[in-house]
Design a protein that fits this description.
single chain; two-stranded parallel sheet; 4 helices; 20% strand; alpha/beta
């Protein structure tokens, strides 16, 4: 009898993939839960200006007001004059107060007290239109206003 054994070929065992579908569905379920869907589809084209003092706003009681050039369903600009959008409808400046009152009436009491109007205006929008919008918001009693901007990009 010999003291040395012949070398046996050792194979790496196959990877057990039985738990893979459970893991995939768990991750898929997680992303479905935490994903935020956009409530309002912008009907105006706007490029948000950059800001130096940018901070995230709370979510409760925010009314988004878009100001920019109107676009069609394909995203092509169809007009030359800036328009105002509140939720899913385009309005005129004179209808802004009624639109804000309608949004306020649909909120809960707590959200109504802390209502903020977030203006997302195109960087090329004339300041005169923004001042007119601010005056209409003041008449409607919406005194808490913020302006959406992107952070200044570092080079």
């Amino acid at each position: 009898m010999s003291r040395f054994r012949q070398k046996q070929k050792h194979e790496v065992p196959g990877l057990n993939l039985a738990a893979m579908p459970d893991l995939i569905f768990t991750v898929l379920f997680f992303f479905m839960i935490v994903t935020h869907m956009r409530d309002v589809k912008p009907m105006v084209r706007f490029t948000i200006p950059q800001g130096t003092e940018v901070e995230k706003a709370r979510q409760a009681g925010i009314v988004y007001l878009f100001i920019g050039k109107p676009v069609n369903g394909q995203g092509d600009v169809v007009g030359g004059e800036s328009r105002i959008q509140v939720n899913d409808r385009l309005i005129t400046l004179s209808e802004l107060g009624a639109a804000i009152e309608q949004e306020r009436s649909q909120m809960s009491e707590d959200a109504r007290q802390h209502m903020v109007v977030s203006i997302r205006a195109d960087r090329a929008t004339e300041m005169g239109l923004i001042n007119d919008v601010k005056q209409e918001l003041r008449k409607a009693g919406a005194l808490s206003i913020n302006y959406s901007a992107t952070g200044k990009q570092k080079k």
